[in-house]
User: What shape does this take?
Amino acid sequence: MGCPYKAIADNTRRKILEYLSQGETASGDLADKFNISKPAISHHLKALKEADLVSERKVRQNRLYSLNNDEIASMKYFLDSLYEK
Assistant: This one.
């Protein structure tokens, strides 16, 4: 499993997470939103998946990605605990 904090250090991965916050999306549709190659998007999605930030679901020939809200909530909880009130 990869480190979720390392995974979100990359701007493209953060943008992918923003798009996925709007709902489950096919990898091809995500790739259309960026000016980089589809293999590069696949690489970023793999890193996010290894960090357990996104889930992948296969439907026929498509791979659909969605946020792993539990892991994101865990990160938020940790970061919130660092904030002094």
About this structure: Strands lie at 25-26, 54-59, 62-67. The longest strand covers residues 54-59. The domain at 4-82 is CATH 1.10.10.10 (Arc Repressor Mutant, subunit A).
